[in-house]
Write a structure and sequence with these properties.
By secondary structure, this protein is of the alpha/beta class. Helix content is 42%, strand content 6%. The structure holds 2-acetamido-2-deoxy-beta-D-glucopyranose (4 copies). GO terms for molecular function: hydrolase activity, acting on ester bonds.
Length: 365
């Protein structure tokens, strides 16, 4: 077994921000496994605020978080543009694969190709599969993230040489994490899409964009791809706050949409693995682990799952969750959610290690 061999070789202790009990041991074990097998040379990220490391700081949009109290538990208390008090899932995944501690934003001038060669995020908060979603707050649409990726490949070829760059692209883990905004920021909020599509037709429309995107990545040499599913969207504090009739419980119809859409993405994954030779496409589903945390916060050491840490925890995100906001909690690690739409660092760490353990281990073989 890979596990035991690695453990025998290396007894390095790695400390992580995680729970007491067995979960922590499991996580450290995974880190040991990952540190010793450099099968993944880089992590390449596409998506929305779940994985944006600060690209929106460099475009004209109000969908930003590069101010306090965002990042107050990040390395040095820096507000980087991550929608979190600390690290986002891709940072934990990068570390789990023995790469850098963070995956930097492509548009951030503090970084260059010598950093991006190990990991890069093209993600943009408030974007979606649908162009109409990225239009709402003028953020980076998915098709432009692909354009950036083409530019990145050119730079990588110059930096590493074409042979090594091609190898890196083929071995790198490409992560896609988006879709929530298509429903909550667009379909159910802005007039237009709901006149044209039923929710189920809209799911199919989005899945076809995901399919074309994966085929484009494949055409550009990517082989290891993770297609991220939706979390239980109805359990985001913002949705619970507005669910007054439902006693501020999770909004069932939004969770149903998440489940339906996830099933479509899962089926797409099965089909594309058959159609595209050499591809290793996985479906990473955060739904059940997130729902389990939200329904059983105490099991994970959390005190609250229904309201967020920042400000009143009921509505605020972005500029509404700012330094001036009173009431913010003092210890974010007791909360499942940081702002009304985004998990805390601790939740991100739990979900990331769950995905590494249950889905990404096959990339280490
Ligand atoms: C990247 O930036 C570092 C300093 O921040 C610099 O030393 C290095 O030469 C740069 N590399 C490239 C390839 O531009
Ligand atoms: C989104 O916009 C881009 C650029 O205009 C276009 O190429 C693409 O076809 C559009 N996608 C969809 C699904 O309409
Ligand atoms: C690198 O990949 C590109 C695109 O797939 C291909 O055209 C090129 O021949 C490859 N170069 C090397 C040196 O393998
Ligand atoms: C997904 O695939 C399963 C098994 O082939 C099938 O029963 C199901 O109807 C499919 N679901 C969707 C949403 O396409």
């Amino acid at each position: 077994m890979l596990h035991s061999k690695v453990i025998m070789k290396k007894h390095r202790k790695i400390t992580l921000p995680c729970l007491p009990h067995t979960f922590c041991i499991l996580l450290q074990l995974l880190f040991l496994v990952a540190k010793s097998s450099a099968k993944i040379p880089a992590i390449i990220v596409f998506g929305d605020s779940s994985v944006d490391a600060g690209n929106n700081n460099f475009i004209p949009t109000i969908a930003r978080s590069n101010f306090e109290p965002y990042g107050r538990d990040f390395d040095g208390g820096k507000a980087t543009g991550r929608f979190c008090n600390g690290k986002i899932p891709t940072d934990f995944i990068s570390e789990a694969f023995g790469l850098k501690k963070y995956v930097p934003a492509y548009l951030d001038p503090k970084y260059n190709i010598s950093d991006f060669a190990f990991g890069v995020s093209f993600a943009s908060a408030a974007t979606g599969y649908d162009n109409a979603t990225s239009d709402v707050l003028s953020v980076i649409p998915l098709w432009r993230q692909l354009e950036y990726y083409r530019g990145y490949q050119k730079k990588l070829s110059t930096y590493l040489g074409e042979t090594k760059a091609n190898e890196t692209i083929a071995e790198a883990l490409h992560l896609m994490s988006l879709g929530t905004n298509d429903f909550l920021e667009n379909y159910y909020t802005i007039p237009g899409r709901a006149d044209r599509f039923t929710p189920q037709q809209y799911e199919t429309f989005l899945a076809s964009i995901a399919e074309n995107f994966i085929k484009s990545l494949y055409g550009l040499g990517a082989r290891k791809i993770s297609l991220g599913g939706l979390p239980p969207m109805g359990c985001l504090p913002l949705e619970r706050t507005t669910n007054v009739m439902g006693g501020n419980d999770c909004v069932a119809r939004y969770n149903t949409i998440s489940l339906e859409f996830n099933e479509k993405l899962k089926n797409l994954t099965t089909r594309l693995n058959q159609e595209l030779p050499g591809i290793k496409l996985v479906f990473s589903n955060p739904y059940y682990i997130m729902l389990h945390i939200v329904k059983n916060p105490g099991l994970y050491g959390f005190e609250s799952a229904s309201v967020a840490c920042c400000a009143t925890g009921m509505f605020e995100m972005g500029y509404a969750c700012s330094r001036g906001s009173m009431f913010s909690c003092s210890d974010a690690s007791k909360y499942v959610f940081w702002d009304s739409f985004h998990p805390t660092e601790r939740t991100n760490s739990i979900v990331a290690s769950y995905v590494v353990e249950h889905v990404f281990t096959q990339f280490l073989k």
